[in-house]
User: Which sequence fits this backbone?
């Protein structure tokens, strides 16, 4: 019996990484695992069947499973933005952060292409740093910040999230030249094709760890949370929310709201609060429509 991680599913075959090897596996003929599907990222036990094929005999309990990309046991989201083009979309960032908090992932905000930016243009990043997020400045060109990034990838299953063009593939290539991922402007045709494909593969990184080769969280609809719980997913709001007058305060117009007070004193940023209100409306709307 061997233990490994499923890194790819293809045409009924399961490719399992065991130590440095990629073994081809299939399911045992007679039964399925309690009707449960197997996902990339699942930890499994396998045993040899014929010469080069193995069968999966056990799936370990999974910590979590993301829907997009469909990967199990994800521990970390590395959200990449660009210091130069494309312009940082902070609403998208805040949505991705809500998702990553919801999935209880370790979160890294990586600002790439710093070779093209002036320091003062990056002031917004401090808002996130002060909110308690790990932030990192990188350049796939000058290799700034790459050692730190590599350390963050080490030993974990990560997903990379962020708009196309921010440099996700370039960063991975710079860290792991053997990967040779294609970069640059994706043509409309292939871009569309890639988006609709459901295949996802975990790339084993030298030094340990895996990264999903599909863009994470391409769906930016908010997760299914109650409007009055939204502030739990805003790390910078969380520490004030407990001090509001009302337990179910939504930090909108309620009296003696500690979040609004923090907003006035500048401890919570206007931008974050604006996105909070926007998301709150979305969740309230959704609740009204579906109940
Ligand atoms: N100047 C500069 N350009 C970069 C950097 N990283 C990526 N690029 C360029 O940005 C473009 C998009 O990069 P790519 O890796 O394909 O982005 P992805 O869509 O997020 O995977 C390419 O033309 C890269 O050469 C960087 O750190 N600095
Ligand atoms: Mg790419
Ligand atoms: Zn409040």
Assistant:
């Amino acid at each position: 019996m061997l233990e490994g991680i499923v890194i790819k599913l293809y045409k009924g075959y399961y490719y399992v990484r065991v130590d440095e090897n990629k073994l081809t596996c299939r399911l045992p003929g007679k039964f399925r695992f309690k009707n449960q599907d197997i996902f990339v990222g699942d930890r499994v036990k396998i045993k040899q069947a014929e010469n080069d094929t193995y069968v999966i005999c056990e799936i370990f309990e999974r910590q979590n499973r993301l829907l997009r990309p469909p990967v199990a046991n994800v521990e970390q989201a590395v959200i990449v933005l660009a210091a130069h083009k494309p312009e940082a979309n902070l609403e998208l960032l805040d949505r991705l952060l809500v998702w990553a908090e919801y999935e209880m992932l370790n979160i890294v905000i990586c600002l790439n292409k710093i070779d093209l930016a002036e320091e003062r243009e990056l002031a917004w990043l401090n808002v996130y740093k002060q909110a308690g997020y790990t932030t990192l400045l990188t350049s796939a060109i000058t290799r700034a910040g790459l050692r730190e990034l590599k350390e963050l990838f080490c030993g974990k299953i990560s997903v990379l999230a962020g708009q196309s063009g921010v440099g996700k593939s370039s960063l991975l290539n710079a860290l792991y030249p053997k990967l040779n991922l294609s970069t640059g402007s994706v043509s409309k045709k292939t871009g569309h094709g890639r988006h609709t494909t459901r295949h996802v593969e975990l790339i084993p990184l030298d030094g340990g760890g895996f990264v999903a080769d599909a863009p994470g969280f391409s769906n930016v609809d908010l997760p299914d949370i109650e409007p009055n719980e939204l502030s739990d997913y805003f790390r910078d709001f969380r520490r004030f929310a407990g001090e509001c007058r009302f337990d179910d305060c939504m930090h909108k117009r309620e009296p003696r709201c500690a979040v609004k007070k923090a907003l006035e004193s500048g401890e919570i940023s206007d931008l974050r609060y604006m996105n909070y209100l926007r998301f709150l409306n979305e969740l309230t709307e959704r609740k009204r429509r579906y109940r």
Observations:
- The two ends are 49 Å apart (CA to CA).
- Residues 67 and 217 are 8 Å apart (CA to CA).
- Residues 270-290 form the longest helix (21 residues).
- The mean pLDDT is 89.
